[in-house]
Design a protein that fits this description.
The protein has 374 residues and is an alpha/beta fold. The protein is built from 16 helices and nine strands. α8 packs antiparallel against α15. The chain starts with 7 loop residues before the first strand and ends in a 10-residue tail after the last helix.
Length: 374
């Protein structure tokens, strides 16, 4: 049998998995790539990973044989049953002290359970929140690992090297025990829901009350992004507002105004209800998405209840002052969203005895993640 060569294995070759692997390779780590559909491994090695030090495996046994000890295996598979099924396949090939990392958006109760089950077998489990999307995974995400603390010394170098940097510091640190990493990521996503809804409402006021066109709205966002509202979401909102199709028409009004959701915002609200924490802003953001999905009902209601015919210029005589007030309202509302999110983190930390470091969590969110801001 050949000598183990890989520092870490990554299971799951969707775009997020591929980009994390390439990021690790760029930072000097040898990665073993595996996918349930093994043909994807060969495709990845022949294309995106061509000319790199990335190795592949066609079975879990082969993957484990290529890993240095303690084995570090990171899963990027769909949350839920798929994670449990993959762990079940991995476990027979592990030795005490090996590390299993779930890098998906798993529900924190599941991560609590998995940490406990694997600990009984002598293995370390880490639930790691990953934020930043496909681009972040490739060039530097925000990473929120929690679980078996004994695993951290074996992961710290890899994770902090591939993570985004803010003022030279990695946007990654140890979060806490059991499912704390996934809980922190869940709250991050809840705050993200709130941020996006706030920006949507600000845009609605700029458009319908201030009477700005899309290019003018984009200019306002550019201006806001140079001040206290400087953030990734404000930046991309400006880009979205000015984006045009091949015919020179703005794309935004052509998009169906119905938002979907993957569940983490909803989970944040469930947790808030469980622990009695009023995350009202995040809750309203989740309900706004639910409301937007009721497209047919909204269209019918708008026919029966037409909006008032009001001359905005008479209500808003000073447009610049009004826009300034919107920016201040947005800033204040963002503070409320973050405050409510951290209230929930504090309560969960007390409930589960996680001893979360809230300052460190805030620092992890300065770069790489979707809610990164000044």
């Amino acid at each position: 049998m050949s000598e183990p060569v890989a520092d870490i294995a990554v299971i799951g070759l969707a775009v997020m998995g591929q980009n994390l692997i390439l990021n690790m390779n760029d930072n000097g780590f040898t990665v073993c790539a595996f996918n349930r559909t093994v043909s994807k491994v060969d495709e990845f090695l022949a294309n995106e990973a061509k000319g790199t030090n990335i190795v592949g495996a066609h079975s879990i046994a082969e993957m484990c044989s290529k890993l240095k000890k303690p084995r570090r295996i990171m899963m990027l598979v769909k949350a839920g049953e798929a994670v449990d099924a993959m762990i079940e396949q991995i476990v027979p090939h592990l030795e005490p002290g090996d590390i299993v990392i779930d890098g998906g958006n798993s529900e924190y109760h599941d991560s609590n359970r998995r940490a406990e089950e694997l600990a009984k077998k002598g293995f370390h489990f880490v639930g790691c929140g990953v934020s930043g999307g496909e681009e972040g995974a490739r060039y530097g995400p925000s990473l929120m690992p929690g679980g078996s603390e004994a695993a951290w010394p074996h992961l710290k170098q890899i994770f902090q090297k591939i993570a985004a940097k803010a003022e030279g510091e990695p946007c990654c640190d140890w979060v806490g025990k059991a499912g704390s990493g996934h809980f922190v990521k869940m709250v991050h996503n809840g705050i993200e829901y709130g941020d996006m809804q706030l920006i949507a409402e600000a845009c609605d006021l700029l458009r319908k009350a201030a009477g700005l066109d899309y290019d003018q709205m984009a200019e306002v966002m550019d201006t806001w992004n140079k001040g206290e509202l400087d953030s990734f979401l404000i930046e991309i909102t400006a880009n979205i507002l000015r984006f045009k199709d091949e015919n020179g028409k703005h794309v935004l009004p052509q998009i169906r105004d119905a938002a979907g959701q993957k569940g983490t915002g909803k989970w944040t609200c469930f947790a808030a209800l469980d622990y009695g924490i009023p995350v009202t802003l995040i809750g309203e953001a989740v309900f706004a998405r639910c409301l937007s999905a009721l497209k047919d009902e909204r269209v019918e209601a708008s026919k029966r209840l037409p909006r008032p015919n009001v001359d905005a210029s008479k209500i808003i005589p000073d447009k610049h002052a009004f826009i300034h007030k919107i920016s201040k309202a947005l800033y204040a509302s963002k503070i409320v969203s973050y405050a409510q999110g951290f209230m929930l983190l504090r309560e969960a930390s007390q409930q589960f005895k996680w001893d979360l470091n809230f300052g460190a969590i805030a620092l992890m969110w300065r770069g790489g993640c979707i809610i990164r801001s000044r």
